[in-house]
Amino acid sequence: MNNFVYRNPTELIFGRGQLAVLEEKAKQLGPTVLLVYGGGSIKRSGLYDKVISLLLSAGCRVLELPGVEPNPRLSTVKKGIELCRQEGVNWILAVGGGSVIDASKAIAVGVPYDGDVWDFYTQKATAQDALPLGTVLTLAATGSEMNRGSVITNWETQEKFGGSTTFPTFSILDPEHTFSVPRDQTIYGICDIMSHVFEQYFSHTTEIPLQSRFAESILKTVIENAERVLANPEDYDARANILYCGTMALNGTLPVGVETDWATHSIEHAVSAVYDIPHGGGLAIIFPKWMRYVYRENVQRFKRYATEVWGIDPAGKSDDEIALAGIEATEAFFARIGAPTRLADYQIGDEKLQVMAEKATPYGAIGRFKKLASTDVAEILRMCL
Ligand code: NZQ
Ligand code: ZN
């Protein structure tokens, strides 16, 4: 196991009816709040009215930034920063999925920063200061509710990059807020959560039994609950378990003491930057192909994955066969729940493979399980066609 320091300051407020604490939180955080949300799902579900009512009861002046796009754009972030500066906003409340939270994080660190907020996404600057941020999460997927990551798309340059920004001060997670998530977004969320675990599980670090078991337990819990939630979107316990898995998959618990990979996320972000496809859909296509491309770097790790997560019986099989059986089980699962399996599912052909491969590797080779140059990325993308 490697050395590590672990700190996570986000207060996680989980369960039915927990939205009520918002009033108290709002009183503590200041009189002027910027409410950030997406394309209207919170209005259709009734959550918007409840949030407004709690903020008004707390005596807040509420400004709004609606219309945050899935794959949130830099131009929207800049609008939010401008509004906060003009109106003297004290804190930000993000109500929505990962995109709304990520845009809110960018606004939170952009307001006190003199330079261009894009600097935080191009490794030109590190965020030192931020407005306080609260979140009400409505979609289980990214883990953004309890980490400091934020992923923003600069549509002018067709670049989609992650930056290290700010932790939410608090995040309210009521599984009932995820009942209305449509089937496709539920599937993408499941694939995203599993992919976060994969990025931190396929590693060459040895003697990490606890981290490995944490990771395997998240994967098994997601797998057990996936079909249940798809069969009944209002199954509270299935939604709750997937929601909690989403947070635990990317709140800093899994990577402690472990060398992590993250190449597949860079590849997916490059695809989204060019074609604007849903993040989890892209991952469902790319991850199994990445697995096939790299598994020989550490067959033992893939054997463990196959037997522990998928219950593959190793009897009579070679190491390669066991590893491949685990990868096939992953592919079969994604197909069974209705995730996309090929880039063609998004009408993506081979025209821009090289462009995407270059965009995935702006600073050179990516990944640690196997270092991937742009030629490797192009090869993996070709396998996805
Ligand atoms: O915009 P609205 O109308 O709210 O609709 C959204 C959106 O269309 C809808 N939705 C969300 N909650 C809903 C709902 N519809 C009905 N009922 C609800 N309760 O779902 C659609 C997708 O929302 P979005 O926020 O884009 O999804 P997700 O949470 O998957 O976030 C994806 C973004 O997060 C980034 C991705 O790259 C992508 O840009 N990521 C952020 C990470 C992080 N900050 O740590 C890590 C991830 O790996 C990921 O890269
Ligand atoms: Zn992701």
UniProtKB/TrEMBL annotation:
Top-level taxonomic group: Bacteria
Domain Alcohol dehydrogenase iron-type/glycerol dehydrogenase GldA: 9-175
Domain called Fe-containing alcohol dehydrogenase-like C-terminal: residue spans: 186-382
Protein keywords: Oxidoreductase
Gene3D superfamilies: 3.40.50.1970, Dehydroquinate synthase-like - alpha domain (1.20.1090.10)
Manganese among keywords: no
UniProt-listed CDD domains: BDH
GO MF annotation, one: metal ion binding
Pfam families for this protein: ADH_Fe_C, Fe-ADH
An example Gene Ontology CC term for this record: cytosol
Annotated PANTHER family: ALCOHOL DEHYDROGENASE YQHD
Protein name (Swiss-Prot/TrEMBL): NADH-dependent butanol dehydrogenase A
